[in-house]
């Protein structure tokens, strides 16, 4: 049973390889069947791991039986495992969605999704900085390929930007790792955290450089201003099912910041405690502002949703930068919620686009959406959730966020920005929705000839969006859970050592 | 004495490399530069062999062997590009 | 000083000189075709000298014979002419000017 | 010698960055390649520079730090994969867009909603 | 010579090289070398076109020594030419008519020419656009570049007798 | 039944109604009525307790983390509102059944209505402020749905968006206010908050909280200057308007003021803000209403005005004013609902609501006319009707107002003026519609409404009259408990009577009526005067504002995210430069304590070559072929550097990667332009030069700082355990395949994915194939140079042998699977170059996809094998065996892992080449014609 920690990484790898080999490699049907099945198993594995972690607390797993800090150690705490669950759930939904036909529009869709899942889960679970780099690359290369799935020329440009920026990002990551290792002589996050508090003199500055570079890399992935500029175009040009899957990717950046920031730069870690807090905080606020402007400026729905992801990234990082338990707990809740809702929105936008002919998802007068009710309900629900209106999960997140920032005393700037942004997003999304669904050229819906939406797509979207009410109905256990996860994050290892654990 | 001979030969090889890079930078034609690069590869092999001798280790033998192999492939590829554009038509 | 050291030293010096001369040719010769001769020949032999020197050295200083250096020599002997050939081909393709007074330019066929 | 090494790293970074800031895909790929050379050298140097102490066990006392070497190896391979991908993506972009200009042109904004 | 042992000469060569690489004659290395020496040619067989085989190995070894000797003299000659004044050099392109049509002997001859005094093989005429086929019997020429041409006829004669003839004999063509 | 059933039942009712598409209209209406009737029954069941002065609670502990609980209360105020909401709700449901035409969906309207009802009930019954906010926002959403019911009408969409935006904004302010309030008190429970009025008012956050909460209330109840959304919400079906603007939506704001009265009221600032806002709204609404030609427009502004009146009352510092406010809430709900319904009938029967067309309706619909006239009279404040009573109380209270100091006399004067206008517009409603000559161009021939459509109006009018005549009998008790809820127990002594004797309020009423008649008779002149005033419409300001904001955003975004990769890169790099550079200045000394190695010739030459190569690459970057040659020098020198600094494995890897990369770059170059045009301005080049120099300096400095200081690293462990724990003497290789094998597994996965991705990129790609090189030379005729083809065949077995050699020794000496794989790949690349891809593909009959997958699979299985022994993933195994003749031989699982690496590398490289080869090999004809990629 101890080995289950590594399964969230290994099983997707195994799945991807199986999907490349006969008999799955050959027929589309077999591949779809296998892919959905394997993704479901992946989800089950993750859920088992989650319950295991809930039972017995944080698990560490030494790959190759080489103990930390020498070998690579996986670190499965509640947050990490929650996120792997989230990732595999999202993948499953996207895979089901793609089985309606999107997967056959290019090669290797299913293996790539599983590879991506492997990378994402690896990044969530690993407790080693360099290993984190490796998994970043796994998920990046898979994402590059997925980005070009069924690509037309707009995708190509977006992908080119994304790839080049991320390659530069990878180079920065390596420089950061080199600096960290060069000063601290270790790569294990816990060990680095322990060593960093003992630095003196100029070594502190060097470690600070390494840490800043790390944070920059994570901020790039998390789409923090001013490093967010790649995101709107890239996501809006990707195939929607891919974009939906990518909703988890900015979260990898956010997660890495949570992980690194609260261990290596936790308030208790000597001269570099809470390093760069102000920068992160203001950048996050600016990200919310710019994302909101982006939402209002969007001329098509996909771009709008992409900008919503920017806003959510800003919100998350603002919370994370506080380095405070309530804020982190709120961030965890909001992270789960926003990932799934944004993904649902991307898929929903795809459904809308598929029914509006040439206008597709542009926010302008056009053909009515034939299956308006079917799509409209889920769009409305997802929009409500993303805006943070009751009765869906967004409102719990919103209240928690406001409350957490209030308790920190950081509301003077955050509240106005956040609330005004909420309002503007409300206006933007409502306006877009009412134009797309209601402002139509022809009224005769029956005459429009579009293919009815494939049932797989409907299932996927409804399941994704269905999580939002679920998160309200079960808000009590979920909020308690988030708090527990945040508590694990904020257990300062240095303090733990001194007091013999909390 | 062997030690100082090695140093002296190092100097000769260093000079040779500098001559190579001079040709490389000056050109004037692309084949000239490729020729200079190819020569540079071979001279580098010489340097590495000599370095192994200097340090009394044969750990670098494979590096020399690989430079020989890969330098050849590289030269061929560059020339093929000049000739046909498509390397693997 | 051991005799092998003498041998090695001489071979090293010879090799170094040849390699240097090859590179001098590369710089000094007036046209591409003439520049080619230095690297393809002098450098190849120079390398052979160096490698034989290394062979001798390692065979003496370590237990057993060390003959693998000869492989590099063989490899260079095989590939150097081909490199030269393909280089000239591309030079001809690029219609590089030969030194004035080169005989038989007209024998080059259009490729 | 450490100084020379660092100068090399600095020059490579500088040249790489300059190339990355060009507007065409090919120089950018060259720049990325150069930057990855620089980064590999940098990462390697984080284990400090040692001469003639290769990490092959042979009874000697001191060895070069093998860990950064292993890291650089991984980084080289990953860099290779990434460079290969970006090179091919550049080809693809040329085919799709008709040029190798990386920036979005003003006209290219008129996106049509047609999707295949 | 069959499916499982397609090229014995290559295999032997590979085994020798393997042992050279490992600097060892231990049984283990011989065994491993043999396995590789047998298995690699099986894999590469499709990549090897049918070439005339060596008919006279002894002559081949003699020729090899001749060429090695020539290489040494050639190099010294060329070194002198390089170091000496350039102006006196009389470069030239010379076309040598060949009596052979197969690819391997021509390649060997061209390589020999390139490695020996003052000459570099430049081209084999006529040029074929696609893959070379050995059943093509059109007469061939070797274009060579000479660093310092004294006497063209003598040079052609020398190449044909000293290098081409033995190679023809070795391959029996 | 517990209180929470009330909103729950209406929610269920909403769901049921939405599924009622198959029922007839009567059945639908009947089914819909069930839920509110049950809810009403529940409320009435609890009513006796409330009338006894108790407050009924229902509490479910929910989110302790956030302090949000499901908590309901029913006190006098709540009861009053629930009765209004449910009572008028039932009437509206009944009325809508007749109002809505056959083509409109009744279930949809009912579902939305009940949803809205739920939200309203939730607001008035909440005992938790966050829960209150929850329902508050729900009213915004459900009213959005109701207003946009006829979504194909632009008016409806715009009106709905505006209503949602304004009330949404208020909602957010309210949330902020409630959160702060909760923080002051330490609880979100209303009873706690209401009991902590003093603490709140003394808090430093009081003003902020108050303003935020008032913003919520004012936007919802359409107080000036947020009133403009309300008239446009009239785009909704009339039953909806009747419901939203009489008893519910707008009253939510009033409710909020009343609800928080104990907690927030009683201070100067409260009275000032609330009363002035109310007064302004009262005046503006009353004035504008007169000029609206649309019947619903008139009613809308009248509603605004009456809401202002109630607000003003709540802002007056007397207890009786509060009682009056509550009384007027009831009265306004009744007469306004009936007026809306009557308007609906008129609209329904004539097809228009324009008073310039509607004339003389008395003749066509006398019953409706009578009902409407009674209601309108009540609105005007005519005695014997309920409107009169509360208005007179209002007049009386304005006389006590002190808040303007010596100018307080203005308040009764202005109130009377507003009363006059209200009489005037009521008069217009009656006279202009039912009398005033004959109708003009009516779309329909008018006639009396269906019998049952009038029933709800009749009920409401009856209430108006009954309350007006017997106020004590009917409303005394509810008014009493509601007021005591607002005033927290202190029940004021009040007396509602028709006749208080001749007093000032009566005079004011009389003045108002007289003034109203005068104003109405002068209406022609007033209309003309009004026409000369500039139209200052909140709606246009809102819409233009929205347009301005949107276009501003678009402009900013297109400036900011302008699609320029260079900008994105430069931002990233500048960020790095700043954050990596700044700490360098904090350092006292860059150089650390280690003794530096001396510079020797070897290094000097190497450095020179490397720098020359790098700089030359930059200089020639526009001549791409030369740049490629130059960058090869750099690659070569980097591997020499690795050799020099004791990293033979790295040198080998770098070399082999270098060659494959150069080959790939050349392949790319063939399909790309050969040269880069000069594009950048010199300023830009200068800028880039500065940034790149900065980067170089910073990274170089960091590097120098690192290499000159001592390092205490974990690496000794690897050296010590490589042989004993990993079974190899090449520590680097042991780290790769054992200590950090997980990295390597990830790394080959990356390589495999890259190859798959490249295949994906190139699949069926039409390519531009130049037929000449950059200088216009045609390509050489000979595709496969003879000598090269021959030699490459010879070299292949040799290269494979070398790669086997490198592979096998890797564990103990420099080498390993990756390098071996690349050597093999390079050998095959040479074959590709020498023979072309068709020739190779005929001979190399592998499916690279499978090879890659098998390679990674081998490594994976090797790692997973340790599960069999219940060891962690990738736990290595090795042992020494004495094999006869061979001797002591080591067998290690790491070798299998390395084999996986080898296979993956070969497969991936080959797949890349094969994909590229496919581009040109398939279709030779393409190379003749220039085909620029056009799908
Ligand atoms: Na091809
Ligand atoms: Na009229």
From TrEMBL, chain A:
Top-level division of the source organism's lineage: Bacteria
Keyword field contains Cell membrane: yes
GO molecular function per UniProt: NADH dehydrogenase (ubiquinone) activity
One GO-annotated biological process of the protein: ATP synthesis coupled electron transport
Membrane topology: Multi-pass membrane protein
Pfam families documented for this protein: Proton_antipo_M
Keyword Transmembrane helix belongs to the record: yes
Residue ranges annotated for the NADH:quinone oxidoreductase/Mrp antiporter transmembrane domain, each copy included: 127-414
GO-annotated cellular components: plasma membrane
Cross-referenced InterPro entries: CPA3_Na-H_Antiporter_D, NADH_UbQ_OxRdtase, ND/Mrp_TM
Subcellular location: Cell membrane; Membrane
Regions crossing the membrane: 6-21, 33-54, 74-96, 108-126, 132-151, 163-184, 204-225, 237-258, 278-297, 304-325, 331-353, 373-393, 413-438, 459-478
Keyword annotations: Cell membrane, Membrane, Transmembrane, Transmembrane helix
Similarity section: Belongs to the CPA3 antiporters (TC 2.A.63) subunit D family.
NCBIfam families the record matches: PRK12666.1
Protein name: Monovalent cation/H+ antiporter subunit D
Taxonomic lineage of the native organism: Bacteria, Pseudomonadati, Pseudomonadota, Gammaproteobacteria, Alteromonadales
Automatic annotation (TrEMBL), chain C:
UniProt KW Zinc keyword: no
A GO molecular-function descriptor: sodium:proton antiporter activity
Pfam families on file: PhaG_MnhG_YufB
Keywords: Membrane, Transmembrane, Transmembrane helix
Source organism, top-level taxon: Bacteria
Membrane-traversing stretches: 6-27, 39-58, 70-88
Family annotation (PANTHER family): ANTIPORTER SUBUNIT MNHG2-RELATED (PTHR34703:SF1)
Name the record gives this protein: Monovalent cation/H+ antiporter subunit G
From TrEMBL, chain D:
GO cellular component, one term: plasma membrane
Source organism per UniProt: Catenovulum agarivorans DS-2
Membrane topology: Multi-pass membrane protein
Cross-referenced Gene3D superfamilies: 1.10.287.3510
Protein name according to UniProt: Monovalent cation/H+ antiporter subunit C
Highest taxon above the source species: Bacteria
Residue spans crossing the bilayer: 6-21, 28-51, 71-91
InterPro entries: CPA3_antiporter_subunitC, NUOK/Mnh_C1-like
Keyword field: Cell membrane, Membrane, Transmembrane, Transmembrane helix
Pfam families associated with the record: Oxidored_q2
Subcellular location: Cell membrane
The family this protein is said to belong to: Belongs to the CPA3 antiporters (TC 2.A.63) subunit C family.
From TrEMBL, chain E:
Organism annotation: Catenovulum agarivorans DS-2
Signal sequence coordinates: none
Primary location recorded for the protein, binned into one broad class: membrane
Name of the featured protein: Monovalent cation/H+ antiporter subunit E
GO cellular component labels: plasma membrane
Pfam families in the record: MNHE
Family affiliation: Belongs to the CPA3 antiporters (TC 2.A.63) subunit E family.
Topology within the bilayer: Multi-pass membrane protein
GO MF term (any one): monoatomic cation transmembrane transporter activity
Record's keyword annotation contains Cytoplasm: no
Source superkingdom: Bacteria
UniProt lineage: Bacteria, Pseudomonadati, Pseudomonadota, Gammaproteobacteria, Alteromonadales
Alphabetical list of InterPro entries matching this protein: Cation_antiport_E
Sequence intervals crossing the membrane: 12-43, 63-83
Keywords tagged on the record: Cell membrane, Membrane, Transmembrane, Transmembrane helix
Subcellular location as annotated: Cell membrane
């Amino acid at each position: 049973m101890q080995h289950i920690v590594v399964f969230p990484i290994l099983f997707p790898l195994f799945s991807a390889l199986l999907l490349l080999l006969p008999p799955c490699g050959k027929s589309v049907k077999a591949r779809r069947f296998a892919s959905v099945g394997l993704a479901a198993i992946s989800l089950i594995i993750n859920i088992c791991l989650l319950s295991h972690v809930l039972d017995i607390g944080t698990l560490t797993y030494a790959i190759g039986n080489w103990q930390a800090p020498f070998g690579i150690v996986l670190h499965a705490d509640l947050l990490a495992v929650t996120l792997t669950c989230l990732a595999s759930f999202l993948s499953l939904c996207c895979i089901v969605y793609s089985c309606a036909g999107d997967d056959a529009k290019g090669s290797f869709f299913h293996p790539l999704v599983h590879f991506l899942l492997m990378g994402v889960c690896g990044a969530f679970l690993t407790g080693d900085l360099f290993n984190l780099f490796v998994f970043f690359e796994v998920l990046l290369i898979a994402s590059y390929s997925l980005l070009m799935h069924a690509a037309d020329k707009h995708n190509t440009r977006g992908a080119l930007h994304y790839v080049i920026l991320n390659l530069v990002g990878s180079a920065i990551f390596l420089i950061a790792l080199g600096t960290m290792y060069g000063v601290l002589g270790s790569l294990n996050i816990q060990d680095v955290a322990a060593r960093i508090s003992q630095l003196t003199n100029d070594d502190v500055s060097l470690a600070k450089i390494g840490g800043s570079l790390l944070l920059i890399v994570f901020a790039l992935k998390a789409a923090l201003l001013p490093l967010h500029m790649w995101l709107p175009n890239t996501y809006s040009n990707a195939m929607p099912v891919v974009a939906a899957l990518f909703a988890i990717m900015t979260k990898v950046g956010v997660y890495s910041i949570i992980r690194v920031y609260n261990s290596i730069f936790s308030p208790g870690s000597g001269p570099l405690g809470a390093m760069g807090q102000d920068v992160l905080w203001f950048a996050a606020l600016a990200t919310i502002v710019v994302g909101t402007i982006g939402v209002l400026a969007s001329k098509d729905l996909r771009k709008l949703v992409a900008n919503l992801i920017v806003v959510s990234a800003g919100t998350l990082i603002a919370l994370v930068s506080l380095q405070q338990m309530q804020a982190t707990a709120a961030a965890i809740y909001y992270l789960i919620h926003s990932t799934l809702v944004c993904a649902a929105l991307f898929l929903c936008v795809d459904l809308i686009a598929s029914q509006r002919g040439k206008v597709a998802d542009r926010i302008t007068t056009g053909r009515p959406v034939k299956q308006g009710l079917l799509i409209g309900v889920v769009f409305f629900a997802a929009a409500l959730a993303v805006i943070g209106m009751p009765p869906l999960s967004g409102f719990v997140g919103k209240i928690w966020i406001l409350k957490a920032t209030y308790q920190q005393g950081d509301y003077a700037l955050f509240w106005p920005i956040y609330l005004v942004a909420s309002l503007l997003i409300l206006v933007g999304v409502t306006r877009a929705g009412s134009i797309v669904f209601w402002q139509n050229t022809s009224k005769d819906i029956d005459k429009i000839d579009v293919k009815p939406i494939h049932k797989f797509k409907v299932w996927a979207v409804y399941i994704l969006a269905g999580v939002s009410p679920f998160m309200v109905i079960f808000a009590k256990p979920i909020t308690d859970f988030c708090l527990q996860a945040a508590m694990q994050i904020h257990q300062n290892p240095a303090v733990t050592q001194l007091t013999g654990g909390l | 004495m062997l030690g100082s001979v090695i140093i002296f030969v190092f100097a000769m090889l260093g000079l040779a490399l500098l001559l190579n890079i001079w040709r490389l930078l000056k050109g004037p034609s692309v084949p000239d530069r490729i020729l200079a690069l190819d020569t540079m590869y071979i001279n580098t092999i010489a340097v590495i062999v000599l370095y192994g001798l200097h340090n009394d280790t044969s750990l670098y033998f494979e590096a020399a062997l690989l430079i020989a192999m890969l330098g050849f492939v590289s030269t061929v590829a560059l020339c093929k590009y000049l000739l046909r554009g498509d390397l693997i038509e | 000083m051991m005799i092998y050291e003498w041998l090695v030293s001489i071979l090293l010096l010879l090799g170094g000189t040849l390699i240097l001369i090859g590179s001098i040719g590369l710089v000094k010769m007036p046209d591409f075709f003439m520049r080619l001769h230095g690297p393809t020949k002098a450098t190849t032999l120079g390398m052979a000298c160096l490698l034989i020197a290394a062979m001798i050295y390692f065979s003496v200083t370590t237990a057993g014979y060390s003959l693998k250096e000869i492989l590099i020599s063989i490899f260079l002997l095989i590939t150097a002419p081909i490199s030269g050939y393909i280089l000239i081909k591309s030079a001809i393709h690029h219609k590089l000017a030969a030194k004035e007074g080169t005989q038989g330019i007209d024998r080059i066929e259009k490729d | 010698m450490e100084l020379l090494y660092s100068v090399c790293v600095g020059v490579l970074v500088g040249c790489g960055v300059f190339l990355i800031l060009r507007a065409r895909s090919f120089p950018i790929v060259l720049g990325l390649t150069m930057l990855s050379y620089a980064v590999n050298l940098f990462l390697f140097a984080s284990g400090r520079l040692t001469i003639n102490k290769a990490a092959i066990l042979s009874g000697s006392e001191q060895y070069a730090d093998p860990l950064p070497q292993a890291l650089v190896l991984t980084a080289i391979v990953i860099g290779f994969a990434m460079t290969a991908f970006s090179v091919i993506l550049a080809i693809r972009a040329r085919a799709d867009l008709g040029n190798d200009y990386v920036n979005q042109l003003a006209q290219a904004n008129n996106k049509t909603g047609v999707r295949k | 010579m069959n499916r499982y042992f397609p090229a014995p000469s290559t295999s032997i060569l590979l085994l020798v090289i393997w042992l050279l690489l490992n600097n060892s004659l231990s049984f283990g290395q011989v065994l491993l070398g043999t396995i590789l020496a047998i298995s690699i040619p099986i894999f590469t067989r499709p990549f090897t076109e049918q070439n005339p085989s060596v008919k006279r190995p002894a002559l081949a070894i003699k020729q090899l020594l001749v060429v090695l000797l020539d290489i040494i003299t050639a190099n010294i000659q060329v070194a002198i030419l390089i170091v000496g004044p350039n102006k006196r050099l009389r470069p030239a392109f010379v076309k040598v008519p060949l009596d052979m049509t197969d690819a391997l002997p021509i390649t060997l001859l061209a390589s020999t020419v390139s490695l020996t005094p003052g000459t570099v093989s430049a081209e084999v005429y006529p040029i074929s656009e696609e893959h070379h086929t050995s059943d093509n019997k059109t007469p061939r020429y070797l274009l060579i570049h000479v660093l310092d041409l004294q006497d063209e006829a003598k040079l052609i004669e020398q190449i044909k007798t000293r290098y081409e003839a033995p190679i023809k004999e070795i391959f029996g063509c | 039944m517990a209180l929470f059933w009330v909103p729950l039942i209406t929610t269920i009712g909403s769901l049921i109604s939405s599924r009622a598409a198959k029922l007839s209209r009567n059945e639908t209406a009947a089914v819909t009525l069930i839920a509110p009737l049950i809810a009403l029954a529940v409320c009435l069941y609890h009513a006796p307790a409330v009338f006894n002065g108790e407050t009924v609670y229902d509490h479910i502990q929910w989110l302790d983390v956030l302090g949000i609980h499901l908590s309901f209360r029913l006190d006098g105020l709540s009861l009053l509102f629930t009765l209004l909401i449910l009572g008028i709700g039932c009437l509206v449901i009944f009325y809508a059944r007749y109002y809505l035409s056959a083509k409109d969906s009744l279930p949809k309207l009912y579902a939305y209505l009940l949803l809205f009802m739920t939200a309203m009930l939730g607001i008035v019954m909440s005992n938790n402020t966050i829960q209150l906010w929850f329902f508050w926002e729900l009213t915004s959403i459900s009213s959005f749905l109701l207003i946009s019911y006829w979504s194909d009408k632009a008016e409806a969409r715009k009106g709905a968006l505006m209503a949602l935006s304004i009330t949404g904004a208020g909602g957010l302010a309210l949330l902020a206010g409630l959160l702060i309030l909760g923080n002051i008190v330490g609880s979100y429970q209303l009873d706690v908050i209401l009991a902590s009025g003093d603490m709140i008012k003394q808090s430093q956050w009081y003003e902020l909280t108050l303003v935020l909460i008032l913003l919520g209330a004012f936007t919802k109840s359409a107080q000036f200057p947020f009133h403009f959304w309300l008239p446009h919400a009239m785009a909704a079906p009339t039953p909806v308007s009747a419901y939203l603007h009489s008893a519910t939506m707008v009253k939510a704001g009033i409710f909020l003021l009343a609800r928080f009265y104990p907690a927030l009221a009683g201070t100067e600032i409260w009275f000032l803000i609330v009363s002035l806002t109310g007064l302004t709204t009262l005046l503006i609404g009353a004035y504008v209403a007169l000029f609206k030609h649309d019947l619903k427009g008139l009613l809308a502004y009248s509603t605004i005005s009456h809401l202002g009146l109630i607000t003003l009352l709540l802002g007056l510092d007397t207890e009786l004013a509060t009682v009056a406010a509550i009384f007027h809430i009831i009265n306004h709900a009744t007469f306004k609902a009936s007026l809306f319904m009557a308007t609906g009938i008129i609209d329904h029967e004539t097809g228009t609501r324009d008073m310039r067309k509607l004339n003389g309706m008395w003749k066509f619909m006398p019953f409706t006319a009578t009902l409407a006239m009674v209601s309108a009279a009540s609105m005007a404040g005519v005695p014997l009707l309920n409107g009169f009573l509360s208005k007179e109380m209002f007049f009386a209270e304005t006389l006590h107002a002190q808040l303007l100091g010596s100018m307080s006399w203005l308040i009764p004067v202005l109130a009377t003026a507003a009363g006059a206008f209200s009489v005037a517009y009521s008069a217009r409603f009656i006279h202009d519609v039912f009398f005033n000559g004959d109708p003009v161009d009516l779309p329909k021939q008018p006639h009396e409404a269906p019998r049952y459509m009038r029933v709800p109006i009749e009920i409401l009018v009856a209430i108006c009259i009954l309350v007006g005549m017997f106020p004590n009998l009917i409303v005394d008790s509810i008014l009493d408990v509601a007021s005591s809820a607002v005033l927290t127990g202190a029940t004021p002594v009040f007396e509602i009577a028709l006749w208080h004797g001749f007093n000032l309020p009566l005079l004011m009423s009389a003045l108002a009526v007289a003034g109203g008649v005068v104003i109405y008779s002068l209406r022609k002149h007033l209309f003309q005067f009004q026409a000369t005033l500039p139209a200052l419409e909140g709606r246009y300001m809102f819409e233009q504002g929205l347009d301005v904001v949107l276009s501003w955003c678009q402009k900013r975004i297109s400036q900011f995210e302008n699609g320029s990769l260079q900008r994105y890169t430069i931002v990233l790099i500048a960020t790095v430069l700043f954050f990596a550079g700044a700490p360098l200045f904090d350092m006292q000394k860059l150089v650390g304590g280690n003794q530096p190695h001396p510079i020797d010739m070897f290094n000097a030459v190497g450095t020179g070559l490397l720098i020359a190569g790098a700089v030359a690459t930059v200089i020639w970057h526009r001549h791409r072929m030369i740049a490629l040659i130059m960058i090869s020098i750099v690659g070569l020198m980097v591997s020499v550097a690795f050799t020099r600094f004791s990293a033979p494995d790295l040198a080998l890897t770098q070399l082999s990667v270098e060659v494959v990369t150069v080959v790939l770059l050349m392949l790319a170059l063939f399909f790309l332009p050969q040269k880069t045009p000069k594009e950048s301005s010199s300023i830009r080049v200068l800028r880039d030069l500065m940034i790149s120099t900065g980067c170089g300096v910073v990274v170089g400095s960091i590097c120098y700082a690192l290499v000159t200081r001592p390092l205490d690293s974990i690496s000794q462990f690897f050296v010590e355990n490589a042989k004993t724990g990993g079974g190899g003497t090449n520590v680097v290789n042991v780290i790769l395949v054992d200590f950090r094998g997980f990295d390597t597994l990830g790394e080959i996965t990356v390589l495999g994915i890259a190859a798959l991705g490249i295949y994906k990129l190139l699949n069926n790609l039409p390519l531009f194939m130049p037929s000449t090189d950059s200088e216009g030379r045609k390509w050489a005729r000979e595709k496969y140079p003879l000598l090269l083809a021959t030699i490459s065949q010879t070299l292949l077995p040799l290269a494979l042998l070398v790669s086997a050699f490198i592979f096998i020794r890797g564990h103990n000496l420099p080498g390993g699977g990756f390098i071996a794989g690349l050597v093999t790949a390079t050998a095959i690349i040479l074959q590709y170059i020498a023979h072309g891809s068709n020739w190779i593909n005929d001979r190399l009959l592998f499916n690279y996809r499978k090879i890659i997958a098998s390679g990674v699979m081998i490594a994976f299985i090797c790692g997973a094998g340790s599960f069999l022994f219940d060891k962690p993933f990738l736990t290595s195994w090795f042992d020494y065996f004495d094999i006869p003749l061979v001797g002591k031989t080591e067998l290690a699982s790491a070798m299998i892992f390395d084999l996986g690496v080898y296979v993956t590398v070969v497969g991936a490289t080959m797949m890349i080449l094969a994909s590229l080869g496919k581009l040109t090999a398939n279709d030779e004809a393409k190379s003749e014609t220039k085909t620029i990629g056009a799908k």
